[in-house]
Design a protein that fits this description.
Elements: E1 9-14, E2 19-20, H1 21-33, E3 37-42, E4 47-52, E5 55-61, E6 64-65, E7 76-79, H2 83-89, H3 93-104, E8 109-112, H4 116-121, E9 129-130, H5 137-142, E10 146-147, E11 152-155, E12 162-165, H6 171-182, E13 195-196
Parallel strand pairs: 1-3, 1-7, 2-4, 3-6, 7-8, 8-12, 9-10
Antiparallel strand pairs: 4-5, 5-13, 11-12
Helix pairs in contact: 1-6
């Protein structure tokens, strides 16, 4: 186990349904292996349901709701994708407010696939360069962002560092960049993702 992220708390913000499983679990495991402490924040209490493309996959226990979470407790944010997850998340007022505050307080944000919808809703793609699942490119451009087709994109042209990737195939590069950038931050915490019986 590494120690690049020792003492860093990382928020994962999702809705309770439709998360692309690999986009939650792969960064989570990378952060944990590097000594970091991820925390699962969802729009409602209970569990979240992940999917592998359109097939239902594991469920995981929620640590805090978007109403309970405080940005001050975290060093960085990860926004996993999944169409249904991202679409529901951008309609949650508390989630959008949290995303906005992560940007405005200068904390790094990492986003993959359809995750940028929440950032668009928070009005923080304006003037930023990022990538995503290709179908979001018009949404990003219409919100004032610069969309690029790259495995991983890092944008520092704003109040924080924004890391973005397109899809599950990009996760190795995405995770490596998360560890590199999140690893420059201080702060404590502890947590583990707890899988529930899939039903």
């Amino acid at each position: 186990m590494g120690s690049e992220l020792q003492g860093r708390n990382v928020a994962f913000i999702v809705s309770n349904e439709g998360i692309e499983r690999a986009e939650l679990t792969s960064p989570w495991e990378a952060i944990t292996a590097a000594g970091g402490h991820p925390v699962l924040i969802a729009t409602k209490e209970g569990t979240v349901r992940t999917f592998t493309h359109l097939e239902p996959a594991d469920t995981f226990s929620v640590d805090r709701t978007t109403a309970q979470a405080r940005v001050a407790d975290f060093d960085a944010l990860v926004l996993p994708g999944g169409v249904a997850n991202a679409d529901q998340l951008r309609t949650d007022t508390n989630a959008v407010a949290l995303v906005k505050e992560f940007f405005e307080t200068g904390r790094p944000v990492a986003v993959v696939c359809h995750g940028p919808w929440a950032i668009i809703e928070a009005d923080h793609v304006r003037g930023r360069t990022l990538t995503s699942w290709p179908s979001l490119q018009t949404d990003i451009r219409n919100a004032g962002g610069n969309w690029v087709d790259r495995q991983v994109q890092v944008c520092e042209a704003g109040p924080n560092v924004l890391i973005s990737s397109r899809m599950p195939d990009d996760l190795p590069a995405f995770n490596a960049k998360i560890l590199e950038i999140f690893g420059s931050l201080p702060h404590p915490g502890t947590h583990s993702l707890r899988s529930e019986q899939s039903s």
